[in-house]
Amino acid sequence: MTAIDTVQSRRGAALLEVLLSIALFVGAAAFTLGASRAMLGNLDRAHREQQAVDLARSKMAELHVGLISIADLQAERIIGVGSLENFNELPGEQPLWNIQVNASRTEHADLSLVELIVSEDSTHVDAARYTLRQLVRLREVNGDGEYEADDLLEGL
User: Fold this and answer.
1) pTM greater than 0.90
2) Residue 35 — pLDDT band, cuts 50, 70, 90?
3) Which of 17, 21, 96, 131 could form a disulfide linkage to 121, CB 3.0–4.6 angstroms apart?
4) Residue of 119, 95, 85 lying closest to 44 (CA atoms)
5) Are 100 and 70 in contact (CB under 8 A)?
6) Tens digit of pLDDT for each residue in 53-104?
7) How far apart are CA 96 and CA 125, in angstroms?
8) Which strands make up the sheet holding 77-78, listed edge to edge?
9) CA–CA separation, 46 vs 40, rounded Å?
10) Could you give phi then psi for residue 39, rounded to 5 degrees?
């Protein structure tokens, strides 16, 4: 082996080291980007699921205090909750929410088991969905379409 062969083999080894380090760096970067993308997807899904939970609890509370009836819930496709016009704070398209309501009598005369199923009307494969079941005392509607006054409110 001559001196020229030794220098060329050292250059070849250095080139191989550089190529190997670049390949390792690209692989680590691809792994990091994939993990970041998965994390952001999971955060988006968690945000949409939290919106479904908030919507179900809000509508159950409105039903419980008599602000809405079961018929009102069944006919609704919802963009916002209560006074919130923009339920989705993030820019872009707002998800539409569908509410399915099931009510059944219980052994207690004045309580009904109400089940609210809130689902996202979306093309997402993992569309958000939440089911809330609660015992509720449904208020009776009088002939004028108004709810009967609650005895607890008398004298206030």
Assistant:
1) no
2) very high
3) 96
4) 95
5) no
6) 998 998 898 888 888 888 887 776 665 555 555 555 555 556 678 888 998 8
7) 15
8) 77-78, 96-105, 112-121, 129-136
9) 10
10) -65, -45
* Residues listed for the chain: 156
3-state secondary structure labels for all residues of 52-73: HHHHHHHHHHHHHHCCCCHHHH
Token pair listed for 105: 């009598």
DSSP state letters, the chain: --HHHHHHHHHHHHHHHHHHHHHHHHHHHHHHHHHHHHHHHHHHHHHHHHHHHHHHHHHHHHHHHTSS-HHHHHT-EESS-TT-S-S--SSSPPPEEEEEEEEEE-SSTT-EEEEEEEEEESS-TT--EEEEEEEE-PPPB-TTSPBPPPGGGTT-
Distance CA 97, CA 128 (A): 9
Whether residue 116 contacts residue 56, with contact meaning beta carbons closer than 8 Å, is answered with yes
Contact (CB, 8 A) for 136 and 69: no
- What token pair was written down for 9? 């083999």
| Token pair 């699921």 in the structure block, residue | 49
Asked which of 32-36, 43-47, 73-77, 144-148 is least confident by mean pLDDT, the reply is 144-148
